[in-house]
Design brief:
The chain contains ten helices and 18 strands. The chain has 393 residues and is of the alpha/beta class. It folds into three domains: 114 residues, Elongation Factor Tu (Ef-tu), domain 3; 144 residues, Nucleotide-binding domain of ferredoxin-NADP reductase (FNR) module (Rossmann fold, 3-Layer(aba) Sandwich); 105 residues, Ubiquitin-like (UB roll). Strand 8, helix 5 and strand 9 form a beta-alpha-beta unit. Helix 6 crosses helix 7. The radius of gyration is 21 Å and the shape is globular. The two termini are 19 Å apart.
């Protein structure tokens, strides 16, 4: 496969069967989906990418379609018979409809709609040949040591596990430092797997468990990660000037704190990769607004045109509704791609061909994508009477 698959590959849903559900902690599970040989190519992925799960679930007596995005937690695997697998970790969220349902009811043999892998939280060190991490760039392997640092909290460890495993297994010159924050030892996801990596690569993998509600020997590793702790970790424990690439995954506050600290230490922005596992107050707006707005024949409306799968759709959106392009487009085409609806995953990405929009949040698009005219349609509202977006570009 080629590099383009990591940046823009048309995401589609297929029914996959759950082959295993494994408990990670009292509040989280690892779910393995079996990928048949005929779909193995579609579910090839780069370490760090994610899938969206779609399921109709009964909520308070009403059946609702729920979509949630989960990072893939295992290194790419293809079996001798051509079949594959995709593993994700699902941690309970307080009030989370899908995560609680999955932890309580999901079992082997269940069938769920799983979107083909996507996402750009991947290493820029040429880890872009899907299911072929051996193809790391020669300039990387030629160095004496390649230094990578990951900072994660809670379920933010999920994509980090896939990236770390692949780096250590396929790049003999790689060294990885992991700073992993949790409330207590019982909350640490993939505890055994992390310990196994430490045993297997004692000189190339270092892990720093920070527990907010448990006393550890070192005060640096006890309590919440705040500015003082980050400054100390990145000053005495980890030398920022030697790090080739950073991976940050967790809640917005932690990710932003680390990013700000790295900026203060003159770490180039292109060396810092980040992903959020919370979508903030924007999440769920698609579910809440889908189908609510209707064309107001007596009032002014925006005209929203969009290209999808080679076909053009048109929908009118009342200016008074202030709905997003995605919400409007879903009334005309229920198959318009989206997953998180919070500006985080990038599934709803499209190119703005005509008109102007106001994009409220963006945690998914790179600077160069924005410069080339791409927007997140779940966060974009028209500011001109007519807009045209292209999901196919």
């Amino acid at each position: 496969m080629t590099e383009q698959a990591t940046s823009k590959r048309r995401s589609t849903f297929n029914e996959l069967t759950v082959s295993e559900v494994r408990s990670l902690t009292p509040d989280s599970i690892e779910v393995t989906f079996a990928v048949p040989a005929e779909l193995a190519e579609a579910y090839n992925y780069v370490p760090g990418q994610y899938v969206a799960l779609r399921k109709d679930i009964e909520v308070h007596g009403e059946t609702k379609e729920l979509r949630r995005s989960y990072s893939i937690c295992a290194a790419p695997t293809v079996h001798e018979d051509g079949t594959g697998e995709v593993r994700v970790a699902i941690k309970r969220d307080l009030g989370g409809l899908f995560s609680n349902w999955a932890n309580d009811h999901l079992k082997a043999g269940d069938v769920i709609d799983v979107m083909s892998p996507t996402g750009s939280f991947v290493s820029k060190h040429e880890m872009t040949s899907l299911n072929n991490p051996e193809g790391l760039a020669e300039d990387v392997l030629a160095k004496d040591e390649d230094m990578f640092v990951a900072v994660a909290a809670g379920s933010g460890i999920t994509p980090i596990m896939s990236i770390t495993r692949t780096l250590l297994e396929k790049n003999s010159s790689a060294r990885v430092d992991l700073v992993y924050a949790n409330k207590s030892a019982t909350d640490v996801m993939f505890l055994e797997e992390i310990a196994d990596l430490k045993d297997r690569y004692p000189s190339r993998f270092a892990v720093h468990h920070v527990l907010s509600r448990e006393q550890r020997i070192s005060p640096l590793l006890t309590g919440r990660i705040d500015e003082e702790k980050i400054q100390t970790l990145l000053g005495s424990v980890i030398r920022t000037d030697l790090v080739d690439e950073w991976f940050l995954c967790g809640p917005f506050e932690l990710v932003q704190l680390v990013r700000d600290t790295l900026t203060e230490k003159d770490v180039p922005e292109e060396k810092v990769r980040f992903e959020l596992f919370t979508t903030g107050p924007s999440a769920g707006r698609v579910e809440g607004q889908r189908g609510r707005a209707v064309e107001d024949t007596d009032g002014p409306s925006f005209q929203i045109d969009f290209n999808l799968d080679g076909l053009q759709g048109t929908v009118k959106s009342p200016k008074s509704a202030r709905e997003t392009i995605l919400n409007a487009a879903l009334r005309a085409r229920p198959d318009v791609p989206f997953a998180c609806a919070g500006g985080v995953c990038g599934t709803c990405r499209a190119k703005l061909v005509e008109g102007d929009v106001d994009m409220e949040e963006n945690y998914a698009l790179e600077k160069d994508e924005i410069e080339r005219g791409y927007v997140l349609t779940c966060q974009s509202r028209p500011t001109t009477d007519k807009v045209l977006v292209d999901y196919d570009q």
